[in-house]
Amino acid sequence: MTTTETTTEGHADDLVLAERRGAVLLITLNEPKRRNALSLGLREALHDRLAEGMEDGAVRAIVLTGAGGTFCAGGDISIMKPGAGIASRDRVERLQRITRLLVGGPKVVVAAVEGHAAGAGLGLAAACDIVVAAETAQFVSAFGRIGLMPDMGALWTLPWRMGPAPTRRMVFLGQAFSGAEAAGNGLADIACPAGAALEVALARAQEIADGPTRAFGLAKSMLARHPASLDTFLRAEADGQGLLFTSDDFAEGQKAFFEKRAPAFKGA
């Protein structure tokens, strides 16, 4: 990729755009009609774009955002099959490759969040090093509505960012945080007026790109070494989420979602 060049090689690549702005790589989730939900195609394209950016010596910082005024609405519920434990575990592990790149990659990643960061989109934002959020943005777990637990490493990144108490409120009580609230509790690092998140994120990423990025990369790897290693956590997460995909509650949660009604969970 060259400076100011947008990569669009083939239809799959249109799902995630990558544009070089000097030493900053801007990655954009590009399915606005679906609120940038993480379909299989989009997540594979996102992984590839991130991997390319992490390996490109000319890229010194990365910005991640979503097109159409929404960061990411989360996983694609239509591809989640109740009872498919092994297949679902594999799907979770493939999604976790993105988390591993965001947390373990050598480049600092700045998220620019407008609209919703929901479900897996919450985990996606929380895995970034710096989160710039519009004051009107909404961060919400959403997994409890369909009988699942947060994934994409969210139960590792959220307590690390804002502490266990707000994390519990998000997971157990369904509490959402606005961008302004998120900046107050550590979920976001910077709050800005609606519509300005990308501009602010690009400016911060340029500051990072102008800095000692090798030192930043090493500091990032040290910051990721808090008590439970990411690898240990992600293996346990995949085991647990794979089990929950076989549960009656997930089947009911998915059915209720499509029928636009409240789910009747039974704890099974």
What does this structure look like?
It holds the Pfam family ECH_1. This protein folds into 2 domains: 16-210, Alpha-Beta Complex (2-enoyl-CoA Hydratase, Chain A, domain 1), CATH 3.90.226; 213-259, no CATH class. It is of the alpha/beta class and 268 residues long. The longest helix has 20 residues, at 85-104. The strands form 2 sheets. A 6-stranded mixed beta sheet has the order 1-2-3-4-6-9, sandwiched between helices. It has 10 helices and 9 strands.
Search tags:
15% strand; single chain; disordered N terminus; 2-enoyl-CoA Hydratase, Chain A, domain 1; alpha/beta; globular
Summed up:
The protein has 10 helices and 9 strands. With 268 residues, it is of the alpha/beta class.
Query: Main beta sheet, described?
Result: 6 strands, mixed
What's the average pLDDT?
88
CATH topology name of the largest domain: 2-enoyl-CoA Hydratase, Chain A, domain 1
Largest sheet: spatial strand order: 1-2-3-4-6-9
Count of DSSP helices? 10
- Quote the distance from N terminus to C terminus: 49 Å
Protein name: Enoyl-CoA hydratase/isomerase family protein
Family: Belongs to the enoyl-CoA hydratase/isomerase family.
Organism: Xanthobacter tagetidis
GO molecular function, one term: catalytic activity
